[in-house]
TrEMBL record, chain A:
The gene is atpF. InterPro entries: ATP_synth_B-like_membr_sf, ATP_synth_b/b'su_bac/chlpt, ATP_synth_F0_bsu_bac, ATP_synthase_B_chain. GO terms for cellular component: endomembrane system; plasma membrane; proton-transporting ATP synthase complex. It comes from Cellulophaga fucicola. GO terms for molecular function: proton-transporting ATP synthase activity, rotational mechanism; proton-transporting ATPase activity, rotational mechanism. This is ATP synthase subunit b. It comes from the Bacteria. Residues 36-88 form a coiled coil.
UniProtKB/TrEMBL annotation, chain B:
Keywords: ATP synthesis, Cell membrane, CF(0), Hydrogen ion transport, Ion transport, Membrane, Transmembrane, Transmembrane helix, Transport. The lineage of its organism: Bacteria, Pseudomonadati, Bacteroidota, Flavobacteriia, Flavobacteriales. The keyword Ion transport applies. This is ATP synthase subunit a. It comes from Cellulophaga fucicola. The keyword Chloroplast does not apply. The gene is atpB.
């Protein structure tokens, strides 16, 4: 192997390597490693945030589901309540109407009774008046002559006898 | 104990990585079967043309072909960048020679040596005379007094200090510029585009993330890895691209930079320094106050210190040996054609060279990975906070 002077290669290798190393470190490795690391972090961040978003979505979904469930049960409760209220109203109305009807019937009955009483009383009065008038008229007729008057007295007396 | 444990860890990491890479290569191969066939055909026929070219080149000196000289020339360093031979003349990219001599700084073009590597051609510069012998530049007057054994690169008394931009330095500069432009483009693309990466960023980002998630974090730990990321990324891509450049067989590539032990030495020293300066109380405590009876300290402390040094030493040798071995095998296979002096060997060694080249592509990334992984592992050991037993 041909060795030229060893100091030549040792000197130049040291010099070139050191300068080369410093230049590369400053202008290549620093930006490259920085960029690679930055990008790795960015990718990791992106993946993480995607994962978070997914989780959030799931949470949201669960929330939605829960809200829906709540709404549904609330609606059911409301419907049930409404039905109950309706039934109660109907029942109340029925009860009320019966009571009212009874009351009206009772009033009507009472009115009819009183009307009836009044009518009977009236009829009685009228019959009495009529009877008096008839009696008056009959008496007037019968008593207009002497014979009749006598006869009447006789009849009457006869009646009394009979009795 | 620690050493054995480390080897197991290395083996596990290596095994896992081998699996991944082989799987990728398999997938590519299945998808491109027909392309593969054509490539094999072309690669096996290519040496035929090379033989034709080399025969013309060999006419001049008529020397016997020397494979070890060729291989040594290719895996070593040189002051100029040989591109090709044309019509018996070499086409060469000349690089500057920079010397720190007795008369101070001396700069001239490597063209002045006229391809001489035997110590005969004299170059005058800055009032001094230089000769070059086996790619080492000597003072001419001192060189002539040397015996053959003393004409080595480590004989600093007889030669000026050489800070030349050699072929390997040139290649290293080129690799740095390519890598810097590449990653600067990636960094800029992130400023414009903060969505998924596109284009070049899409191709390189997985590699950056691979270094982070499979090398830095498992070995250094989630808390402390960020500080060492720039260094690990730099050595990973720097070693890889230089390995690959070494495998491309034409100008301006083909230099064997990562197969040069001085280069791997510097890188492992840097890892060693980073490891040492990152070392916490536990780490140094384990070295200088190991959990053994005090009487054993004279044995244990030197062993621990040797343990510190063997780690970067292994890093240095591993990368150097792997890459150099690959180059030597490929060059040897090509040399076979010239040793047998028969073009019928060419298709055979062409197929083997293709196979080796594919294997070396794997080794190129694997060794970059191993160097980075072990650096991370050593740093991880230095910064680890463990409770004592």
């Amino acid at each position: 192997m041909n060795f030229t002077a060893p100091e030549s290669l040792i000197f130049w290798t040291t010099l070139i390597f050191v300068v080369f190393f410093i230049l590369l470190k400053k202008f290549a490795w620093k930006p490259i490693l920085g960029a690679v690391k930055g990008r790795e972090e960015a990718i990791n961040d992106a993946l993480e945030s995607a994962e978070n978003a997914k989780k959030e979505m799931q949470n949201l979904h669960a929330d939605n589901e829960r809200l829906l469930q709540e709404a549904r049960s609330e609606r059911d409760a409301m419907l049930k309540e409404a039905r109950e209220i309706k039934e109660k109203i109907v029942a109340d109305a029925k009860e009320l109407s019966v009571v009212e009807g009874d009351k009206i019937i009772a009033q009507a009955k009472a009115t009819i009774e009183s009307e009836k009483k009044a009518a009977v009383a009236d009829i009685k009065n009228q019959v009495a008046n009529l009877s008096v008038e008839i009696a008056e008229k009959v008496i007037k007729e019968q008593l207009s002559n002497k014979d009749n008057q006598l006869k009447l007295v006789e009849d009457m007396l006869a009646d009394i006898k009979l009795n | 104990m620690r050493c054995g444990f480390e080897i197991i860890i290395n083996a596990v990491h290596l095994h896992r990585n081998f699996g991944t890479i082989i799987f990728i290569i398999k997938g590519m191969m299945i998808a491109q079967k027909s392309i593969k066939l054509i490539a094999i055909l072309v690669f096996s026929l290519l040496p035929l043309f090379a033989v034709a070219g080399e025969e013309v080149g060999d006419h001049g000196d008529g020397k016997e072909f020397d494979a070890s000289e060729l291989i040594n020339g290719h895996i070593g360093d040189s002051h100029e960048f040989h591109i090709a031979d044309w019509d018996g003349h070499p086409i060469t990219f000349y690089l500057p020679v920079i010397l720190w001599s007795d008369n101070g700084l001396t700069v001239f073009s490597s063209e002045k040596f006229h391809h001489d590597n035997t110590g005969h051609h004299v170059v005058e510069a800055n009032g001094q005379e230089f000769v070059r012998y086996n790619e080492v530049i000597f003072y001419k007057d001192k060189f002539e007094a040397l015996s053959e054994d003393e004409k080595g690169a480590f004989n600093l008394d007889v030669r000026p200090l050489d800070f030349s931009i050699t072929k390997l330095v040139f290649s290293m500069l080129m690799a740095s510029v390519i890598l810097f432009l590449l990653f600067f483009a990636v960094a800029r693309s992130y400023k414009k585009n903060d969505k998924a990466p596109k284009g070049i960023a899409g191709f390189l980002e997985p590699l950056v993330i691979f270094v982070r998630d499979d090398i830095a974090i498992p070995n250094i730990g989630e808390k402390k890895y960020a500080k060492y990321m720039p260094y690990l990324l730099t050595i990973f891509f720097f070693i890889w691209i230089n390995n690959v450049i070494g495998l491309i067989p034409f100008f301006p590539f083909s230099s064997n930079l990562t197969g040069n032990i001085f280069f791997t030495f510097v890188l492992s020293v840097i890892t060693f320094l980073i490891t040492s300066f990152s070392g916490n109380k536990d780490y140094w405590g384990h070295v200088f106050a190991p959990p053994v009876p005090k009487a054993l300290y004279p044995i244990m402390i030197p062993i621990e210190i040797i343990g510190l040094i063997t780690k970067p030493f292994a890093l240095m040798i591993r990368l150097f040996a792997n890459i150099t071995a690959g180059h030597i095998i490929i060059l040897s296979l090509i040399s076979l054609i010239f040793i047998f002096k028969s073009i019928f060997i060419a298709p055979i060694s062409g197929v083997f060279v293709l196979f080796m080249s594919v294997l070396e592509m794997l080794v190129a990334v694997l060794q970059a990975y191993v160097f980075t992984l072990l650096s991370a592992l050593y740093i991880g050991q230095a910064v680890a906070e463990h409770d004592h037993h």
